[in-house]
Amino acid sequence: MNAQMQTIEATFERMTEATLDAVLAVEHTVYPHPWQRQHFADCLASGYQAYMLTAGSHLLGYFVVMKGYEEAHLLNLAVAPPYQRQGWAQVMLDAVQLWARGQGAQWLWLEARASNTRAIHVYKTHGFHCVGERKNYYPAEGGRREHAVVMNLKL
Predict the structure, then answer these.
(1) DSSP states of 41-63 as a string?
(2) What sign for the dihedral angle of Cα 128, 134, 137, 138?
(3) Residue 150: inside a domain, yes or no?
(4) Which of 151, 109, 117, 114 is CA-nearest to residue 135?
(5) Computed over its alpha carbons, how large is the radius of gyration of the chain?
(6) Nearby residues of 41 by Cβ (< 8 Å), 6 or more positions away
(7) Can you tell me the distance from the alpha carbon of 10 to that of 12, in angstroms, rounded to the nearest whole number?
(8) Which domain holds residue 149?
């Protein structure tokens, strides 16, 4: 039996204050300790690159990346649950990588929760390498903290 694959035409749009409700709705379904509106607002005010991947009126995912000296730092990337495991994270990582190269970055950095093995796998598949650990980096349940895996990609 041949399964028909649904074709989705996706586009990148800048994240704005006006789109934060949609972004926050996804953020709160994806992460156990989600960013709050002020985190996103601060990133927008600081001029960080913040884009949403959309298909019509559907928000597939988004990312926030910060430029540094000869490097870029991926601060947040999420795919909405109905669109996970369809390659959209790779599409966004490609976009981040292209943008970072265009900014003269030599490296792309990120942190991932040590327990987020699915995300770590996605990043490794994209060519990122685990290079260290930040102890007690993320908030966890019950007032505890969770380690972050530090990853980088040579551009």
Answers:
(1) HHHHHTT-EEEEEEETTEEEEEE
(2) positive
(3) yes
(4) 114
(5) 16
(6) 17, 20
(7) 7
(8) 11-154
- CA-to-CA distance for 33 and 28, rounded, in angstroms? 8
Which ranges in the chain belong to alpha helices (H)?
20-30, 37-45, 88-102, 117-125
Looking at residue 130, which CATH number applies to its domain? 3.40.630.30
* Residue 112 · residue 99 · CB < 8 Å: no
Burial grade of 92 (CB within 10 A; 0-12, 13-18, 19 or more): buried
Tokens of 93: 């990582």
155 Cβ contact partners less than 8 Å away, ≥ 6 residues apart: 97, 100, 101, 105, 106, 107, 108
pLDDT at residue 7, rounded to an integer: 73
pLDDT at 134 over 70: yes
Q: What average pLDDT score do residues 71-75 get?
A: 98
Residues 6 or more apart whose Cβ sits within 8 Å of residue 10: 53, 54, 55, 60, 88, 91
Distance between CA atoms of residues 70 and 67, nearest Å? 8
- Whole-prediction pTM: 0.91
Task: Write down the pLDDT at residue 141.
Answer: 87
Q: Is residue 125 part of a domain?
A: yes
